[in-house]
Write a structure and sequence with these properties.
single chain; about 375 residues; alpha/beta; 7-stranded mixed β-sheet; 5-stranded mixed β-sheet; 14 helices; 12 strands; about 40% helix; globular
């Protein structure tokens, strides 16, 4: 029977407690949200939603084609200019998602004969970029510059190290300055995914590379997503202008994909301008994350200290993690639930995302619910 193996795989997932299902959410719900990546609380901000609506009224519901044909509007160019300037880079290129941005950057910057050194804790989109690139990938131990150094030694061709700036599972940060120093020892480039750093780290939320003094460097390329702190959708690659020009001509997820919808570009641009005007939102997101961590650990839970806005709480097993998250939701709290294969270490956990707009009472409520429903 065609696709008969699918049923066998489904049964294996069921036995391991790893079945995933879609859960459509209503537009208006009383559930307290600590599951989304809306770090700055901007996705429903009136300026952001009006930015989306105005763009749709002006440019239409879709971009109408790939960026190289009809899918580049003046709005896309405006967003790219302001995003690059805000983060401290020479140029930017907007794509339809952060996933597409990572695939574009890694595949275009790792040609045949190159070596890619990828952190063991990298996001799936970086991993897939490594798999699709023509260079050979070597996985380095998590957050270990010495392991990167060893992987680069003896290679005399093009090379690039690839890492998240803030890892999405536990919210721990990469040692960016040390990674950059190692890459420069060997003439290698550095590609950084700042999806969880933009809007939270760096002066006014300019990102982890900015905070590490790497913004604008000619050997550093950064990818970001517009769907987290900026409350919209899409992704971008930031870096030297010559690198961006190279991506325009070689990155398949840019060349052959429909351009980002104008509404998403308009929302992201409005959020970026709002963040520039209200830089305190970035510091507030970090403060909420630290308070969540302190309260959770004080309650006897095993939580990882956050370096940005992600707070991870360990669960005993995949099945208990699923039950714990379901019990939280039943009590009016939405939390993320990370299980294998989404977690590289095989340890299941609840994943909480701090938001700049959370009140003290909401933080207290979240900690209370998590503690009361613990397995």
């Amino acid at each position: 029977m065609a696709f008969g193996w699918i049923d066998e795989q489904a049964e294996l997932r069921r036995r391991a407690g790893l079945v995933r299902t879609l859960r459509p959410r209503a537009a208006d719900t009383p559930v307290l949200d600590l599951a989304s990546n809306d770090y700055l609380g901007l996705t429903r901000h009136p300026e952001v939603t009006e930015g989306a609506a105005a763009a749709a009224r002006t440019w239409g519901g879709g971009s109408t084609g790939s960026r190289l044909v009809t899918g580049t509007t003046e709005l896309h160019a405006e967003l790219e200019d302001e995003l690059a300037a805000f983060c401290g880079f020479e140029a930017a290129l907007v794509l339809s998602s952060g996933y597409a941005a990572n695939l574009a950057a890694v595949t275009a910057l790792a040609p045949h004969g190159s070596r890619i050194v990828s952190d063991a804790g990298n996001h799936a989109s970086l991993i897939d970029g490594c798999r699709l690139a023509r260079g050979a990938t070597q996985v380095a131990a998590h957050r270990d510059p010495d392991a990167v150094r060893k992987a680069l030694q003896g290679h005399d061709g093009p090379a690039v190290a690839v890492s998240d700036t803030v890892f999405s599972v536990d919210g721990d940060a990469a040692p960016l300055a040390e990674l950059a120093a190692v890459c420069r020892e060997h003439g290698a480039g550095l590609v950084l995914d700042d999806a969880h750093g933009l809007g939270v780290l760096g002066a006014g939320g300019r990102g982890a590379p900015y905070a590490a003094g790497l913004a604008g460097a000619d050997d550093v390329v950064v990818t970001v997503t517009l769907s987290k702190s900026l409350g919209s959708q899409g992704g971008a690659v930031l870096g030297p202008a010559r690198v961006i020009r190279h991506l325009v001509n070689t990155a398949r997820t840019f060349i052959f994909d429909t351009g980002l919808a104008p509404a998403a570009a308009g929302a992201a641009l409005a959020a970026l301008r709002l963040l520039r005007r209200e830089p305190g939102r970035a510091a507030r997101a970090g403060a909420v994350a630290r308070e969540l961590h302190e309260r959770l650990t004080a309650a006897g839970l095993e939580a990882v200290r956050p370096d940005a806005a992600v707070v991870s709480v360990r669960a005993p097993s995949p099945e208990q993690a699923v039950r714990w998250a379901a019990d939280c939701r039943a009590a009016g709290l939405a939390v993320g639930c990370f299980r294998p294969p989404s977690v590289p270490d095989g340890v299941s956990r609840l994943r909480l995302t701090a938001r700049a707009d959370l009140s003290g009472a909401e933080i207290e409520r979240a900690v209370r619910v998590i503690g009361e429903t613990r397995p």
